[in-house]
User: Which sequence fits this backbone?
């Protein structure tokens, strides 16, 4: 009988993701470099992304819409069809990026598989996340896949209800303290942070997490000593 569920965030926990978005943002900035500084362009884009989260959620399609809205504001609604096409192509390129697993991910999953119910709990586009999981070759290790519209306390509570498990028997592992750790700690679960070398600005926090059910690791391989 399984006594515990271990859930993994996907992007930048199981495979690389944020560098692809940074590359896409750089392409966007090159398209409009004649209008303002790169720093201002990135800030404008982030502002639209954050403002659009309640409507569009997370993922590449939302990112594309935010790029178009940012460009419209930047050009005072004088955006050409050619420019829109180039922005859409940036999004299509993102949707076709190869899935590159982070080091030792599969060996860790092999060691945990069969001892615990393993779950993927991630944000983003449903179709894109399922594509990445399929292409990754590690989908068979997971008992359940959850693509969440957000990662609030309520979102986790709903997921745990579907999984029929109490928070005290739930462990969430991810690279974002804001999304993968803090909400889980707040509902009574265990949160494990494994940092990635770069983090989307929206996911950053400016304080230290101190909690008896919080663990900070440097590498996913350290999970093999914990479990």
Assistant:
């Amino acid at each position: 009988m399984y006594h515990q569920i271990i859930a993994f965030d996907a992007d930048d926990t199981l495979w690389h993701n944020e560098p692809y978005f940074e590359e896409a943002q750089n392409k966007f900035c090159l398209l409009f470099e004649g209008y303002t500084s790169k720093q201002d362009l990135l800030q404008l884009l982030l502002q639209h992304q954050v403002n659009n989260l309640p409507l569009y959620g997370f993922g590449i399609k939302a990112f594309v819409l935010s790029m178009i809205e940012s460009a419209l504001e930047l050009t005072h609604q004088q955006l050409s069809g050619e420019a829109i096409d180039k922005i859409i192509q940036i999004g299509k390129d993102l949707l076709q990026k190869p899935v590159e697993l982070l080091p030792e991910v599969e060996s860790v999953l092999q060691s945990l598989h069969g001892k615990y119910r393993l779950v993927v709990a991630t944000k983003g586009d449903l179709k894109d996340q399922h594509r990445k999981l399929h292409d990754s070759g590690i989908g068979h290790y997971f008992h359940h896949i959850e693509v969440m519209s957000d990662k609030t306390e309520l979102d986790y509570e709903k997921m745990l209800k579907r999984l029929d498990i109490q928070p005290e028997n739930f462990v969430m592992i991810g690279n974002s303290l804001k999304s993968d750790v803090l909400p889980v700690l707040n509902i009574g679960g265990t949160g494990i942070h494994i940092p990635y070398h770069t983090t989307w600005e929206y996911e950053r926090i400016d304080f230290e997490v101190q909690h008896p059910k919080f663990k900070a690791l440097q590498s996913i391989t350290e999970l093999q000593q914990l479990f």
Observations:
- The beta strands are 5-8, 117-123, 144-148, 170-174, 190-193, 214-216.
- The longest strand covers residues 117-123.
- The chain is about 45% helix and 10% strand.
- The CA atoms of residues 118 and 225 lie 17 Å apart.
